[in-house]
Amino acid sequence: MFSSTLLTLATALPLALGQSYNSETVLGVYIFHRHGDRTAKITAPANLTDLGYRQVYTAGDYYRSRYIDSSSPYHISGINSDIVLQSQLQVSAPIDTVLQNSATGFLQTLYPPVGTKLDTEELRNGSTVTAPMQGYQLIPIGVAESGTGSEDSTWLQGTSDCAKAEISSNQYFTSTEYNKMYDQTKDFYHNLLPVISGMFSAEDATFENAYTIYDYINVATIHNATIPSASLLTNETLSQLLALANNHEWNLAYNSSAPIRAVTGMTLAAQIVQFLNGTLADAGSFTGQKLGIQFGAYGTFASFFGLAGLQDVSVDFTGATDYASSMVVEMFTNASDAVTTSNYPADGDVYVRFLYHNGTATASDPPTAYPLFGSGQNVLGWNDFVSDMNKFSLGDTGAWCTACGNSTGACAAYVDSDASGSSSGSSSQESKTGCSNGVSPAVNGVIGAMVTLAVVLGLEALVLLVCGLRVVSKKRLAQASNGVSSEVKA
């Protein structure tokens, strides 16, 4: 795509990883990011707006200046600053137009086009080829395991695919807290019917649809030139709409008495640890993974916030995060020696910092560090961080299936057939493999196949015996091709 000479030089760079300012060297980073401004959920399919595109584009530029720019004090050690090296970057988003497009917009400034001096390649025959769009850098976006169609779903757990999480969230709708809020807000939502009647009936204008109503009105206040009965939308009313939506969604995303409700946060926690573990395992290799980026919905933010105890830090963590918001886990070392592949810090010298920004991060409005797990500390040792994350993370299919109670599709291999649908008596080995005999699903599959083959062969022998037939080779059949044979072809 770009100059072959330039790429050769890039891959031949020395593996000395450099030293950050203030005696800190950033080793790896994981970013979880919300999409930009979009059209309303109620008017699906939702689409990223020009404003939303600008928001994620701006955020990408900020994170480039923080982690990619070689002059930044937070430059990720060893990461390419100009031409992306695909192995250093891992980007994912669910199969969802808004989220996929948001990731694309973000990447356009994280690694911008290389420019007219670097966007050409000379072929062997002497001709020159110029890359499109001034060397626009193509960065693949992987598919996140859950969250498909997130922005077209009007229910928070609608795309989690976790049976027990969906049941848990549904239980909120029968709780005393929910019913009390439903009754107290009847008049409030009824009074908004002149504004929302084009999309919501009188029956639907209730606290049950708190977020969808807020979302519809919020989009209108941003984009619509005119709004029916706009005088009803006072600042106080808009604030109350947001507060009710936040209350509604927080209770659907997290409940301390029912942790599985926060299943998306559990999955994200495992993905963060697994990625950064991979960074450490690469020990500073030039081609190793250094920056993980995932785009997702606000529900995952809320679930993770609850699991990490951030609701005790600030009430701001108990609601739906704004468009283009981001949370970041920075992994760094304070080791005084320069970090190289041959002098990589031990786990005991590695630390983690959690940062969050509500809305689009910029140089003038950057993310803020917050303490995790009730520690009261903005910096945690790597081993402590992993230990706390592992208390609630779900990092493999078997663990996820067991926790969610799912038994079909990919989870079929993890179902304990002897437990009659109950896992209460399962041993730890059964929980990991889903097999009451302690044999892995793969081995069980082979055993099953062998048993099936034996049964088939037995039946075939019985048929041959009863019918007076026998099996002969193709060679003997060829020899008897001119005659009539009562033998069966093998």
TrEMBL record:
Tree of life domain: Eukaryota
Transmembrane feature ranges: 445-469
UniProt-listed Gene3D superfamilies: Phosphoglycerate mutase-like
CDD domains, per database record: HP_HAP_like
Keyword terms, alphabetized: Membrane, Signal, Transmembrane, Transmembrane helix
Keyword Kinase: no
GO molecular function, a single term: phosphatase activity
One Pfam family of this chain: His_Phos_2
Signal sequence region: 1-18
Similarity-based family: Belongs to the histidine acid phosphatase family.
Protein name, UniProt field: Histidine acid phosphatase
Naturally occurring in which organism (per UniProt): Extremus antarcticus
Organism placement in taxonomy: Eukaryota, Fungi, Dikarya, Ascomycota, Pezizomycotina
